[in-house]
């Protein structure tokens, strides 16, 4: 298996040097140094407390990173709730308590982040779900949108297209005109930059909307 490129951001040089040395013995990861850091798939951040300064460092690194889907793993003694939400926006995929984080746990979190999986404490996951429900109820719902970015009407159409129906059959099933169905599909394609209806269905499936 190809090793995961990881950059290390720490509050002091001693901690950083210790992490670089410790991770060097793990074949699953490779620490990138110097200019090569910009090519890392994962940013590993170690701090006593996740502060605005730490979050600013993550944001600056993300802007210079070559991978737009950079995963962030944070190892810290303390992180406040509003900082968790900001960290998620910046790509947080792993959160470990510094007291419990050994090199094995850190390596697993880094590999998971590189593969697009998030390994977060149950309390953080619950809070994120609560936030999503609030956004859906108070912001998206009144506008006819869902968390996925699709409207309920768009999802109805895409779901039927995914079942193999053509636009005429979709129109008949939903009691829409065929022109309305085509306009809905065109709206999805335009908003998400998709090539055709097949691409639209595939995109909705990959995003978890269908």
Automatic annotation (TrEMBL):
Give the UniProt keywords, A-Z: DNA-binding, Transcription, Transcription regulation
The record's section on SMART domains has: HTH_LUXR
In terms of InterPro entries, this protein maps to: Sig_transdc_resp-reg_C-effctor, Tscrpt_reg_LuxR_C
**Boundaries of each HTH luxR-type domain copy?**
142-208
Pfam families, per the entry: GerE
Query: Domain of life of the organism in this record?
Result: Bacteria
Entry GO MF terms: DNA binding
Is the keyword Transcription regulation assigned to this protein? yes
Q: Which GO terms describe its biological process?
A: regulation of DNA-templated transcription
Please identify the protein, giving its name as recorded.
Answer: Helix-turn-helix transcriptional regulator
Q: Which organism is it from?
A: Phytohabitans flavus
């Amino acid at each position: 298996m190809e090793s995961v490129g990881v950059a290390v951001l720490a509050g002091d040089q001693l901690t950083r040097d210790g992490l670089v040395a410790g991770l060097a013995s793990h074949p699953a990861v490779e620490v990138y140094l110097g200019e090569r850091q910009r090519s890392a798939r994962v940013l590993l951040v170690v701090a006593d407390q996740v502060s605005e300064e730490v979050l600013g460092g993550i944001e600056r690194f993300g802007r210079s990173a070559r991978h737009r889907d950079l995963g962030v793993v944070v190892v810290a003694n303390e992180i406040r709730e509003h900082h968790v939400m900001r960290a998620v926006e910046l790509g947080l995929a792993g959160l470990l308590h510094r007291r419990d984080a050994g090199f094995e746990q850190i390596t697993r979190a880094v590999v998971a982040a590189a593969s697009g999986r998030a390994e977060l404490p149950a309390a953080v996951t619950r809070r994120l779900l609560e936030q999503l429900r609030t956004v859906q109820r108070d912001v998206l719902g009144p506008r006819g949108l869902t968390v996925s970015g699709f409207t309920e009407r768009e999802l109805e159409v895409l779901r039927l297209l995914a079942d193999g129906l053509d636009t005429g059959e979709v129109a008949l099933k939903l009691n829409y005109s065929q022109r309305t169905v085509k306009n809905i599909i065109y709206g999805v394609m335009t908003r998400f930059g998709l090539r055709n209806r097949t691409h639209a269905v595939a995109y909705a499936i990959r995003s978890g909307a269908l």
